[in-house]
Every structure is written in C-alpha cells, then in structure tokens.
Amino acid sequence: MEVKLRALEKLALSIPGFKGYKEKELRRETDRLLRQHIASILEEARSLIKETQITVMQKGKIGLLDDLERAIMKLQNTIDRLKTAAYGYSGFFDAVKIREEELDALYKFDLSILEKAEEMLSSAKSLKETAEKGEELISAINSIISEADSLLAIFLKRQEAVLSFSEGG
C-alpha cells in the first residue's frame, strides 16, 4: 500500500500546479495543528489558574478572585482568537509565489507565540504553587495578565504581517 501511495504522490506532483497546491494545503494543516497545540497549552494554563481560584477561596483571600478572573478572561480571549482565526495564513497561501523571507517572518512569529504560551503555562504552575504556600499572589497575577497581553499582541502583529504579505506589502 505504501508503494502505491508513493507512486500516486509522485504522479500527482508531476501535474502542473499540484505541487504548489499540496504545499499550501500542508502549510494550512501545519498552521492548524500548531494553533491547536498552542491553544491546548493555554487551556492548561487557564485550568491551573481556575484551580488557583479555588485554593485562594479556601484560604479566605476573596479579594484576589477578581484579579484571577481577569487573568482567566484574558487567557480565554487569546485562546478564542487562536482557535477562530483563519488557518493557513488565509489569502497568503493562495498566491502562487511565496517569498522565503515572508515565511521566515511568520515562522518567527509562530515560534515566539509558542514560547510565550509555554512561559504562560510555567507562570500558571508557579502561581498555583505560590497560592498553595499561602504566599503573596498579586504580583504573580499581574505578571500573568501582562504575559497574556504580550502573547495576544504578538498574535495580532502576526495577523497584520500576513495581511501585508498577502497584499504585496
């Protein structure tokens, strides 16, 4: 079966225009998978912050609940935007020619977003541990809110870059 598939792929790739189409489809699928992965990291961070809310309530620090809720909402907003943005750089991949430097710029944005998501997860774990110890949380909560803002800003800049590339700018 594998030999037949390779032969079919080789045949399909020999059709004019198909290779570019297949590459675009692979990029779209890769983009979708990457965003799903980033969203799952952020969902884990959000879950940890929700668990922190419970810990904070149990320790009687009710005054921090609004701040924690704000962090959760910021994270949820970012998750929603990641999940609902068009996959595959939308019109960007519809162009036949894709400049290497444009792809490199997008890959740098993607890597930065992934790194920020991983930092967010680490911060959420640290926040939960800090809450369990009964230590001061407000600076950690504010840091998470800042990280969420930063991650969303990078994602929005990436979307702007995609638009400028697809418009030829």
List the helices and strands and how they pair.
Blueprint: H1 2-13, H2 18-58, H3 65-84, H4 100-133, H5 138-166
Helix pairs in contact: 2-3, 2-4, 3-5, 4-5
Short recap of the structure:
By secondary structure, the chain is mostly helical. It is built from five helices and no strands.
Describe the structure using short key phrases.
mainly alpha; elongated; 5 helices; 169 residues; single chain
Low-confidence stretches: 89-96
Q: Major sheet: size, sense and barrel closure?
A: none
Task: Tell me roughly what share of residues is in helical segments.
Answer: over 70%
Helix segment tally: 5
Quaternary structure state of the chains depicted: single chain
Taken from the alpha-carbon principal axes, the silhouette is: elongated
The helix/strand order is HHHHH
Beta-strand portion reads under 5%
Radius of gyration: 21 Å
Distance between the termini: 45 Å
Q: What is the number of domains?
A: 1
Please, what is the average pLDDT? 82
- Please tally the β strands and state the result: 0
User: What is the structural class?
Assistant: mainly alpha
3D structure, described in words:
The protein has 169 residues and is mainly α. It has one domain (2-166). It has helices spanning 2-13, 18-58, 65-84, 100-133, 138-166. The chain is elongated and about 70 Å long. The protein starts with a helix and ends with a helix.
